[in-house]
Amino acid sequence: MTVKGLCRRDATLLTAEAALKYMLRKLNNQKTSLSKSLVEAIRKHISERRQPMTAILQFLHNPEEYFKENAETRRDNHPEFPRMSCDEMITSITELIHRLQEQTLNSLQNRSAMSSPAADYASGEKETSEDDTGTNSSTSSVMGKELNKAIEKSMTKKQNRSQIGEEEEDNIQTLIRIEMKLYENGGTGGRFSDAAYN
């Protein structure tokens, strides 16, 4: 039954976690030597493979359920489903936000570099009219190079602006902490928690 649950088309990391917990609970209720050995083997495999980001995903999906399960995990002593503290979550979400910002910036830079008309113009790929003289063509080539330099310079400024310093890092962590508290108390996810969840 659990295998069917794991193989569903709409299965996600969250549904897989729920299916595994269900299976462990049912096997524990069997109270046979076979079920005990299966539970031990499954717990060992889960603890070896489970990622900390799963806890963050569960928190961002439903914080009430996360804390309810957190209490059950401590009560039932399930080390294979470790929970993260709020500080660990904030640090991990901050790292994730940084990676997402870098990927977005690199993607935008690659896209603009490949499709930039200024880059085509500067490299001479833009069609010239038959009326151009040698002077006009050399002037346009120089202007194209200057335009390309200006574009590259503006991209560099944008890249430096997106790099986060220590002070901004503290601000992001503070904002994530606030978003988490609001979300725990029934609010909606904020900019950073939504970015981490998606």
Describe what this molecule looks like in 3D.
The model is unreliable at 121-130 and 151-164 (pLDDT under 50). This protein has three domains: 2-84, no CATH class; 85-108 and 164-198, no CATH class; 116-162. The chain is mainly alpha-helical and 198 residues long. It is built from ten helices and no strands. It has helices at 2-6, 13-30, 33-49, 53-61, 63-76, 86-115, 117-122, 134-162, 166-184, 191-197. This is (apollo) hypothetical protein. Residues 146-155 have a biased composition (Basic and acidic residues). Residues 108-171 are annotated as: Disordered.
Descriptive tags:
single chain, about 200 residues, mainly alpha, 10 helices, about 80% helix, elongated, (apollo) hypothetical protein
Helix-strand blueprint:
Layout: H1 2-6, H2 13-30, H3 33-49, H4 53-61, H5 63-76, H6 86-115, H7 117-122, H8 134-162, H9 166-184, H10 191-197
Q: What percent of the residues sit in helical stretches (DSSP H or I)? A: over 70%
**Radius of gyration, CA atoms, in whole angstroms:** 27 Å
Give the averaged pLDDT, no decimals: 71
Taking the alpha carbons of the first and last residues, their distance comes to 29 Å
Largest sheet at a glance? none
Helical stretch tally = 10
What string gives the helices and strands in order?
A: HHHHHHHHHH
How many strands?
A: 0
Shape: elongated
Poorly predicted runs are: 121-130, 151-164
Q: What percentage of the residues does DSSP assign to strands (E)?
A: under 5%
Q: Multimeric state of these chains? A: single chain
Q: Structural class, please?
A: mainly alpha
Q: How many domain modules?
A: 3
Biased composition (Basic and acidic residues): 146-155
Protein name: (apollo) hypothetical protein
Region (Disordered): 108-171
